[in-house]
Structure formats: structure tokens, C-alpha cells
TrEMBL record:
It comes from Luteimonas soli. PANTHER family: INTEGRASE PROTEIN, TRANSPOSASE RV3428C-RELATED. Residues 292-484 form the Integrase catalytic domain. The keyword Isomerase does not apply. GO terms for molecular function: DNA binding. Residues 8-73 form the HTH Mu-type domain. This is DNA-binding protein. Keywords: DNA-binding.
Length: 755
């Protein structure tokens, strides 16, 4: 007989049976005996011919096959090869366990990184997570595995048959291939959702000024020593100091790099350039269906109340979650049942209970939203949607809500209808529970949202969990104590900050972070005063916010008035941290400044310019001797005096007058001025400016009035401002003429011709 439908039997081909005790020694002989005795047979699963059931063989043959199998197993256990294989297997099991732990930490790191993403990076990540969530739903609806459904899913996506939000297609492209989906799923599984954001736009910090340590340290040293130095002077300093290099940046590159560095290091730059201004601007001032569910976190159910609760501070809804295994129940008070509310209640439950394997929800927009789908995909949680108009599929959460509505809530003060008609309905016997589960109903409670949330938390933990549950046969608290299941927990709670939503950018002020008239402070905020940070807030805990800076977790900031922490202690710690960080940064900048050796930089630049211009020349310009009557008269008088002193001429008959002496003085001064260099005239002007206005003579005033507005003076004044008195061999007291010096106003007064 042939029966291929019998399962659980062992089957043998003739080649395996030949030579067994009581059977022929050839395959043909085995086949003939099987035909004679009517052995149970079936077509071979691989190859041609028949194979025969063990139970239909003669007893002698079955005994021999059993002895051979036992002997083979004993020999294998005793062999060296078995021992080596067994040892390798144990090693591989240990390695797999370690790899699993490493992979789990990598995923959590990816979740924490994903929580800090903003802008285009977050949009790309959310779009890919949403598409992976659509793939899971697509496979579930067609009762296919994820991999088996990929090709069909891509065809539906590429043809437009699949409805995908335009915001998702913008980042996932017009066409999709299965290998792309497999790569995304692998990245999300091994590295977390942050790996789906890509690495676009990350060229910052790859220029020569960032990658060449010698150029980078020299430039930073320049800035440390000369905080107000211009990009042009930095460019010229690099050209002068590193003339032998052929990879020096262009002027535009230096300008862009310097602007970016000053923007990213505005606080420390101001601390070096103007400590008093830094204190005023940045120094912190914080002072003032459940038979198959046998494991905890195996299945959760979530639902929301259809009716609205009219509270003292507005209308609200309730969103609930229940662990089906032990009936753990939590409620979240929210403005409306939205994706935001769903992620909030999920986050609170995950922190307390662990990560669920699957959740059961309905097909409402809040539960089937892109954000919830992305969150479930990122955390590897299976989403199970109930059929439309089938509330019994979520019977556990429905019963928990009704227990809540029939319980202590009706005893709360101020419980009444929303208007006269509804109050009359209450008096007519219409129960609160009936109205809570009726859409568009409004129930009034004289409580605030915070008071109702506190009541819900106390009711779930201290009342519901200690009441005997009919389906459990004990209380939820006792059932939870009996469970010894391994639950996946998030080792780094910051990884769950992804569930808080996109967050908002806020600027840190001297007082902290102000959000909705509440001020949040933390010692770590002192290091980022004046900078923008990403803030995420848990609606269930208004006293704390999560803060990120530079796509990295920074701190948990608290509002002292709400959280009850000491403002004074945080203020002291914040100032201490800020002072230590600033001192360290200032020490590093000053060390680079000394290393850059900027004392001779002005001379290096001038020498470099001189070498560049050494080969240049001009044709001699036509010139004539410049003579005036005064110069001629002075010359005649000088010749006469020389002849008289030599005894070759008698004294002049005409007496020497003051006019003669004045003419001679002016002529000599003119000759002296022709011997002065531009640097000499610049130093003479500075020495005159150092004198008070009342101590200058008419010649000095006239010289300053003409010289201070010349291009010769103004060009050297710019270098004087950048490099100080030492660039022109002047003592340090000449620094009083700089813009922040006590005598700076003398320059503008002299330029205007004021006495």
C-alpha cells in the first residue's frame, strides 16, 4: 500500500535496508521482498523510487536497525571528533549569547541616537520606519512572511497601487527593490532606527584647517591670542608662516571656517576676549482572549474612551494599556486620543513593565498612524489590529475600563452631567459607565487634569491590582508575583525618548529653559548658555524635560517648583561646572596661542609681502628740483654763515631776523621729514597722540591733522589694532590708544582737528 499522508514515521530507501539482518543484501532483493510482504511505502521525497516505513519491516530487521543506531550513537559520543564538536558547540553558544547582548546594546544606542535626530535626518528615519511598518501590515493581511511579501510589496509600491503618504515617498523614492527593504530591516534590527537616517551632509570638519594639526593649532592659537583677528589676516599669516606648503586654504575657505568656528565657540571666544561681557551674557543664573497568553509582556491591549471628560481645565480623554498575562492596568489623561497620547502611555508602561512582544489595538487613526507604526517597528513590537466594529477582540482592556467606570470614579466630588439634560439623564438612572463608552458624550468632573491623573495612578496601583480578578482567580498583584518570565527591558531609558515625539528647539538662557511659563534647570545647562537645544517633554511628568545638544543626550532638566528640587544646590553645581569647563577651554586656547608664536607675526607678514614684491619695479618718474623763495633764502643765509665761520667772508651787513630763522627752521625740518620712513611717521604720530591735547604744539597738531586721515596711517593703524604696540617696537603703554583703551578717543578728536 502507498500512503504518503502518514506523519511521524521513519522511512528507509532500499539502499539503506540492503544487508540488514533478515533482509536481502541487494536493493532489488529488498524491493521484491517488500512487494511480497506488502510493506507500507511512499514515493521518495528526493530522487526516484520508493521508500518503506520502519514499522512495516520484519521484526528481525527492526531490531538490527535499532542496535546499529544505538552502537553508532555510543561510538559517536566516545569519539574525539564528538568531543571536539561538542566543545565547539558550547563555545559557539557562548559567543552567540555575547553577540546577542552586544546587539541589544547596539540597538538601544541606536534608539537613543534616533531620539536626538532632527530635521531631514529625522524625516528620512521616520519615512523608512513607516514603510517598514506598512510592509508588516501588508504581509499580515496576505498571510505571508515578511521576506516572502517583499517582492509583491515593492510591485504595489512602484505601481502606485499601495497608498503611501507623499511625505514618505519624498524620502524613500519613486521605486523600491526588495534588497533595499532587506537592508533597512537589517540596519534597524542590528543598529537601531538611527541607522536609517543616512549620513548625508556630514562633510563639516573635513577641510585642511580641521585635518592638518599644524595648521589647525596655529589658527586656533591666532584666535586665542588675537580674538578679533580678521579672516584676511589669518589667511596672510598662514601664507607667511607656511609658505612651503602647497595645500594652504584659499581666502574664502578661511573666511567660512573662521565664521563657523566663531559661531560654534561663541561663548569661549567671548570669555577670552571680554570676560566681563561673558559674565553678563552667559554666566548661569539658576539661583532663584487570553488563554494563549502565559508570559508577562507577551501581549498588551490599548484603547481609548469614546466620551470626553470635561475637567476644570478643559476637555480630556483617557488612554489605557493592559498586560493580558497578569492584568496590569495603566491610564493616561490626555487632551485627545492621538498618536502622541498612545506613545506617551506606551513609554510609561515600558519603563515600568518592560518591552511587549505584541500589542492589540483597533484601526483608529491614532493607533494606525505613521508615528505609532514607526515606534512599533523601531522597538520590534508586533502590531495586531482588531477587525472593524469588533470590540470583543480587545475584551480585556474593555473590561478594565468598565471596572474603572463602575468603581470609585462615581464617588468623586462634583460628578455630574455636562448640562441640564445630561444631569436629568443621570438622575433617571443612566450610569456613568454607559456614558463613558458612548461617543460624543461629555462627562463633567470637578478635577484638574493633574488631579485626575494622580487619581488614576493611585486607583490602578493601590486598588485595582489588589482586587481579586475573576479571570485570574487571584489579584493582579499576586499573579505578577507568580510569573518568572524573562522580560526584555530597556537598559538605557534615554532610548525611549524617541517616543516623546519630535521635540522643540529652545535657547538656553541664564535662567535656564523656559517652557509654558515654567523654568527648567540642571547643572549641565550651564555649559550651553546662549545655545539652542532640543527639548522633549513627558506629558505625564511636567516637572522634568529631556534635553539634547548637538544630537547627543545632555541632561534631564527639572522645574524646582514642580519637581521639588533645590534650586540653590543646582545653581551652585551649575556655576561650578561652567567655571571649570570655561577655565579648561581658556587654558587650551592660550596654550595654542603660545604655540603659534604670534609675537613676530607682523614682521613675518611684512617680510613675506616684501619677498613677493621684490621682483617688481617701476620706471623712474620725471622729477624737478622743488624750490621756493623761502628755501632759496634759507640756502643763501646758510652759505653766508658757513663762509663767515670759515673766515672767507665778512659778516653780513643785513642783520639776521626771526623771519630768517623761521625760514631756515622750516627748510631743515623739510629735509628731516624726507629722511623719515612710513613706520617712523606712524610712530611719531602715536607719540604725539599719547600726549594730552594741551601739551602738543602747533606743528604737532598740524602734522596729526594731515597725517591721521592718510592711507599711509590708516593701513598701519589696522595692523596696530590687530597685533598691538609690539608690532612697531613700541612699549605696552601705547595700548591705551587701542579701541578698548583709555586714550582711544584722542585719535578721533585729532582726526577731526579738535584741540
Amino acid at each position: 500500500m502507498a500512503d504518503g499522508g502518514i506523519q511521524g514515521m521513519h522511512w528507509y530507501v532500499p539502499a539503506q535496508l540492503a544487508g540488514v539482518a533478515g533482509l536481502p543484501t541487494t536493493e532489488r532483493g529488498v524491493h521484491k521482498q517488500a512487494e511480497r510482504e506488502g510493506w507500507m511505502k511512499r514515493r521518495r521525497l528526493r530522487g526516484k523510487g520508493w521508500e518503506y516505513a520502519f514499522d512495516s519491516l520484519p521484526q528481525q530487521a527492526r531490531d538490527d536497525i535499532g542496535r546499529r543506531a544505538a552502537l553508532s550513537k555510543t561510538q559517536a559520543l566516545a569519539s574525539d571528533a564528538f568531543a571536539q564538536g561538542n566543545q565547539l558547540s558550547r563555545k559557539l553558544a557562548i559567543a552567540a549569547k555575547v553577540d546577542g547582548a552586544v546587539q541589544k546594546r547596539t540597538r538601544e544606542t541606536g534608539l537613543a541616537s534616533a531620539a536626538a535626530l532632527t530635521g531631514k535626518s529625522r524625516e528620512r528615519m521616520d519615512a523608512k520606519l513607516a514603510l517598514l511598518a506598512l510592509l508588516a501590515t501588508f504581509a499580515h493581511n496576505r498571510q505571508l512572511g515578511i521576506c516572502a511579501a517583499m517582492a509583491e510589496f515593492c510591485d504595489a509600491y512602484n505601481s502606485g497601487e499601495l497608498t503611501v503618504p507623499i511625505t514618505v515617498r519624498m524620502h524613500t523614492g519613486a521605486a523600491l527593490a526588495p534588497r533595499t527593504l532587506r537592508r533597512w530591516r537589517h540596519l534597524n534590527k542590528t543598529q537601531g532606527p538611527a541607522a536609517l537616517a543616512g549620513g548625508y551632509g556630514n562633510r563639516a570638519g573635513t577641510g585642511v584647517l580641521d585635518t592638518a594639526p599644524q595648521l589647525h593649532d596655529f589658527t586656533i592659537g591666532l584666535i586665542a591670542d588675537k580674538p578679533h583677528i580678521s579672516a584676511k589676516l589669518v589667511f596672510e599669516a598662514l601664507q607667511a608662516r607656511f609658505a612651503e606648503r602647497d595645500d594652504l586654504p584659499k581666502l574664502r575657505t578661511v573666511q567660512d571656517w573662521l565664521a563657523r568656528w566663531k559661531r560654534d565657540n561663541a561663548e569661549v571666544l567671548l570669555a577670552v576676549a571680554n570676560p566681563d561681557a561673558w559674565k553678563n551674557r552667559y554666566m548661569s543664573g539658576f539661583g532663584s482572549l487570553s488563554e494563549s497568553v502565559t508570559r508577562a509582556c507577551q501581549l498588551w491591549m490599548l484603547d481609548s474612551t469614546p466620551a470626553d471628560l470635561q475637567l476644570v481645565d478643559g476637555r480630556y480623554n483617557l488612554v489605557g494599556v493592559i498586560d493580558v498575562a497578569w492584568r496590569g492596568f495603566r491610564l493616561h489623561v490626555c487632551k485627545t486620543s492621538s498618536a502622541e497620547a498612545v506613545t506617551q502611555v506606551m513609554r510609561r508602561a515600558i519603563i515600568e513593565w518592560g518591552v511587549p512582544e505584541a500589542i492589540k489595538v483597533d484601526n483608529g487613526r491614532d493607533y494606525a498612524s505613521q508615528r505609532v507604526g514607526s515606534m512599533l517597528t523601531a522597538l520590534h513590537i508586533d502590531a495586531r489590529f482588531s477587525a472593524p466594529f469588533s470590540p470583543w477582540e480587545k475584551g480585556n482592556i474593555e473590561r478594565a475600563f468598565r471596572t474603572f467606570s463602575h468603581s470609585l470614579l462615581e464617588l468623586l466630588p462634583g460628578y455630574s452631567g455636562h448640562n441640564v439634560a445630561e444631569a436629568q439623564a443621570l438622575r433617571a438612572g443612566k450610569s456613568f459607565a454607559e456614558r463613558l463608552f458612548k461617543k460624543n458624550e461629555v462627562i463633567e468632573l470637578k478635577l484638574t487634569a493633574a488631579e485626575l491623573q494622580a487619581f488614576c495612578d493611585d486607583w490602578c496601583r493601590h486598588y485595582y491590582e489588589h482586587e481579586k480578578h475573576e479571570g485570574l482567580g487571584c489579584t493582579p498583584f499576586e499573579r505578577y508575583a507568580q510569573l518568572r518570565d524573562v522580560v526584555n527591558r530597556i537598559g538605557d531609558v534615554r532610548a525611549l525618548d524617541l517616543l516623546l515625539g519630535g521635540g522643540a528647539m529652545r535657547r538656553v538662557t541664564k535662567k535656564g529653559l523656559r517652557i509654558d511659563n515654567l523654568v527648567y534647570i540642571a547643572p549641565e545647562l550651564a555649559s550651553v548658555v546662549g545655545q539652542d537645544v532640543l527639548v522633549r517633554q513627558d506629558d505625564g511628568d511636567l516637572g522634568r524635560i529631556v534635553v539634547y545638544h548637538g544630537e547627543q543626550f545632555l541632561c534631564i532638566a527639572e522645574c524646582p517648583e514642580v519637581a521639588g528640587v533645590s534650586r540653590r544646590e543646582i545653581a551652585i553645581e551649575g556655576k561650578a561646572r561652567q567655571a571649570a569647563a570655561m577655565q579648561q577651554k581658556k587654558r587650551e586656547l592660550k596654550a595654542l596661542g603660545r604655540k603659534a608664536n604670534t609675537a613676530d607675526l607682523a614682521r613675518d607678514i611684512l617680510d613675506h609681502k616684501a619677498r613677493q614684491n621684490a621682483s617688481l619695479g617701476t620706471l623712474p618718474a620725471p622729477n624737478v628740483v622743488h624750490l621756493t623763495p623761502a628755501i632759496e633764502a634759507a640756502g643763501d643765509a646758510a652759505d653766508a654763515l658757513e663762509q663767515y665761520e670759515a673766515g672767507t667772508q665778512a659778516p653780513p651787513a643785513e642783520p639776521v631776523t626771526l623771519d630768517h630763522l623761521a625760514n631756515l627752521r622750516d627748510a631743515m625740518r623739510g629735509e628731516q621729514a624726507q629722511d623719515e620712513t612710513a613706520e617712523d611717521r606712524f610712530r611719531r604720530a602715536l607719540r604725539s597722540l599719547m600726549k594730552p591735547e594741551g601739551e602738543r604744539d602747533d606743528i604737532e597738531r598740524r602734522f596729526l591733522r594731515n597725517h591721521l586721515t592718510s592711507a599711509e596711517f590708516l593701513g598701519r593703524w589696522t595692523m596696530f589694532e590687530d597685533f598691538g604696540p609690539s608690532a612697531f617696537g613700541l612699549p605696552d603703554e601705547f595700548a591705551a590708544l587701542l579701541p578698548d583703551g583709555a586714550a582711544f578717543d584722542r585719535l578721533s578728536r585729532a582726526q577731526q582737528g579738535e584741540p
